[in-house]
TrEMBL record:
Keywords: NADP. The keyword Heme does not apply. Belongs to the NmrA-type oxidoreductase family. Pfam families: NmrA. It comes from Sphaerobolus stellatus (strain SS14). This is NmrA-like domain-containing protein.
Amino acid sequence: MSLSILITSAGRLTQHVISTLLSLSDCPPIRVIARSHADLGRSFPAQLRSAPHSVVIIENITDPNLANAFQGISIVLHSGPLLDPKEEASSVAIIDMAKNAGVKHFILCSVLQPVRTKLHIHKAKLNIEEYLTESRLRYTILQASDVAVNTGKIAIGFSPFVEHAFVDLNDLALTVLTIIRDPKSHSYACYELVAENISYHNIARLIAQEVRRDVQCEVLSTKDYLALMTGSYYVRNEHAEDAITRIMMYYDRWGLLGNPNVLRFLLGREPTSWTDYLRRELPTDS
Ligand SMILES: NC(=O)c1ccc[n+]([C@@H]2O[C@H](COP(=O)([O-])OP(=O)(O)OC[C@H]3O[C@@H](n4cnc5c(N)ncnc54)[C@H](OP(=O)(O)O)[C@@H]3O)[C@@H](O)[C@H]2O)c1
């Protein structure tokens, strides 16, 4: 692939994309933006720190070196900071920088159904999507559902019986790869990435079946859930506290349902279900 790719952050979603790209024999040059507190040794494969790949340390959107990171780049994969009040402003600035640098294609990692504007994160994404669609850049929007993650414990702040849409990180990374391999054919597309709709109660039952022991959801009040999360990586300010509180209330009432048809089309196979994911990730003797 004669491309160069800029990945605007190195979080949960993009680290998976980075590993998938690096596993290719024809991996294009990748440039990743990270903050200075990132543990480069632990968070990034060594391969990423040697030519033709690179990690550029940028503290925030006002860093004068940020615009330089877009020079020579053909494709940008933008994954905005989660639960950050400045997500919209920083994403708009990043779209502008991509445009000014002559980037050929912009992939935006958005959320499933940003029209659910009662949720802070979704509202921000809706505005970012609008700005991107009017940017005159070629783009692909990936509306990802929640990623399936088994942390060994299910603590939630909403009803365990309400269904939510999930996607597997590998499927998401493979979708990004499909777009990178042929960006033009995915221009001006907006893809909903959903594997299945399932409640946490049923996820607990699936894990229990696989590990052959009882697994229960720990259902907390919104206040207790917030207390559990406060001070964690995800909840470091009042904006994040407020956003999480609203998510819990919203999920309790509405859940977040989606449809797997688009992901099935993109992958050319059935998307990875929770059962597939658990069978892949859980140790065989568990
Ligand atoms: N996780 C999901 O289930 C999911 C599903 C659908 C869509 N999304 C969307 O995908 C995006 C990434 O999600 P994720 O789960 O990968 O999040 P994540 O693991 O929290 O990663 C977020 C990245 O943004 C960086 N970041 C945070 N605050 C920043 C700031 N103020 N300035 C610069 N960089 C900052 C983080 O860097 P540090 O590590 O240095 O803090 C990290 O690299 C989000 O926009 C989210 O809405 C996520």
